[in-house]
MYND-type domain-containing protein
Amino acid sequence: MASSIEEQTRNNDYNNEDADTFSMEMLNSFLPKSNFYNVGMRLRGVDQHDLARDAFQRGSETGCIPCMSLYTDCLSKGGKESMIHLRLPWLLEGAIRGHLYIIDLLVAFYKNAEPANPESLQIYWTKILNSLHVSLGMNKEERKNNRGTIGNVCYPCREEDSDDRKFQQCSGCKIYSYCGKECQLEHWNDGNHRGECKQLQILNTYHKPYAKQIHKKITRGDDPTKIIELQTLREKLGLSRPKDEYEKLLLFLGDDCDDYRPIRREYIVARDDGTVHIGSTAEVI
């Protein structure tokens, strides 16, 4: 009887704490692959990149994690600004399953967000990355220093606090600090911290306590459709919303008319309730 993925990886580089990075190919080698993955790889090998992307998308929609990593990679090739908003749901799908390479991509991807960089989400996912593999991401001291830097500065106006004047922290994320109500409201409304903060609360409640458990089940080959914590999290993040709820938004963001080009980077983080603007698939994957 074949050993589980978890058993196969105990004594190899996947769990080698001296390794600084992992290639997408190596991480994918330990995961089940759909036929769409094989089709996509063959198409990519003969430079049929658009058809390969379509195959990886189909595979992602069946829950194939290697397809998710390759599909998001395809969407980033050649500076595809018109597709940048389509990467987030699949980066999140891979990240909540504990794929180290995809988590690393997600942290970097958030730098593209407008109108503000969601640093609290970057810190969250870096911490998850570290907890799943201690050699990746910032170490505990670096995270502490980074958090301290953010906490000592009013995020909108960049004023530093002092011994005489301590700033108020956001009561939701406890990451950002503000010199006053005006700056807090500016970040909350104009900087989309409302959506960022709500999504962080969703992750802290429905992902953080179960992250290692979900990752363990995925790596040993459990059926993801039967992992209740994973499916609950997908629902809470809005990943499994019916497509008809955001189909008009997809059409709007996909239109590059001469008179108006949508600012797709404003749809990278979250809606006001913390859910994603665009889901992945309504199917249970």
About this structure: The beta strands are 168-169, 177-178. Residues 119-132 form the longest helix (14 residues). Residues 20-151+192-267 form one domain. DSSP finds 14 helices and two strands in the chain.
